[in-house]
Amino acid sequence: MFKKQVNNIELDYEDHGTGNVLLFLHGLGSTKKDWDAQVPFFSKTHRVITVDLRGHGNSTKPQDAYSVELMTEDVKQLLDELNIKKATVIGFSMGGAVAFEMAAKHPKYLDHLVIVNSGPDFNDMGKTGEDLLKNRTEFLETKGLEALSKEISYNMFPEDHQVDLRHEFEVRCKNNDYNAYYKSFTTLMEWGLGDQIHNIKTRTLVVGSDMDYTPVSFKEDYVNKLQNATLVVIKNSRHGVVIDQPDAFNLELQKFLNHE
To answer: Considering the entire predicted model, what is its pTM?
Structure first.
């Protein structure tokens, strides 16, 4: 693990392999360990960087400074610090919001964009978004982070054969700082690209799961707004596709990279 001072905080990251850069961004309440099944696979052919976003893992947990925009600036400054001019940015869930923001604000840094079970407008997801914000905020305030971690992990990995994945994710989630998690979540739900999505020209792969909490049609809708995007749907998978179907995910990402 390495640390870099960026944007008034310290980011914890890992750096493996050589070649074209793949930058992996994890989901809300998790860490760079989301990508444990991707790092050994892709670091054989690429330089792979995984990072704990602000408020998460071993990175700084500020009292109030949270937003997708701040996390995006952190990532941009990390690339500058590492003297990386171009990277394929791969974002899962909240990491997808950061990846989208990066593509909208700093397109010159991107080789390609990969969005995994995420969307361009967390602030405009209709009833799904309203319910998520209300229910999760209420759950956090009344039952606490430990109970929420159990609930989220079960929903992501409900099958009997997924007990180990469920437990591992639950531990990762409940180790969060309450304030950092709460503010990361509420600021994420305020974020959206709006019309800026139409300006994204970066070649894009969108990966969805057939059993994600947002339907495939939701992904199809925003893929049609992007200038150069394709959608791949991975079967028998829920929200955490990079964890519950790593081989299928790695294959789709490898195919996309091989056709650059």
So the answer is: 0.97
Please report where in the chains the tokens 């990532």 appear, as a residue.
75
Cβ(3)–Cβ(74) below 8 Å: no
The tens digit of pLDDT for each residue in 56-103 reads 999 999 999 999 999 999 999 999 999 999 999 999 999 999 999 999
Burial 7-42 (b: 16+ CB within 10 A, else e): bebebbbbbebeeebbbbbbbbbbbbbbbebbbebb
CATH of the domain at 46: 3.40.50.1820
Are 97 and 191 a contacting pair, CB within 8 Å? yes
Are 24 and 230 in contact by the 8 Å Cβ rule? The answer is no
CA 124 from chain centre, in angstroms, equals 18
> What length does the chain have?
260
pLDDT tens digits, one per residue of 147-205: 999 999 999 999 999 999 999 999 999 999 999 999 999 999 999 999 999 999 999 99
Domain count, the chain: 1
Domain, as residue range, for 156: 2-258
Distance CA 11, CA 4 (A): 5
The answer to whether residues 227 and 233 touch, using CB atoms and an 8 Å cutoff, is no
Beta strands 2-6 and 9-16 are: antiparallel
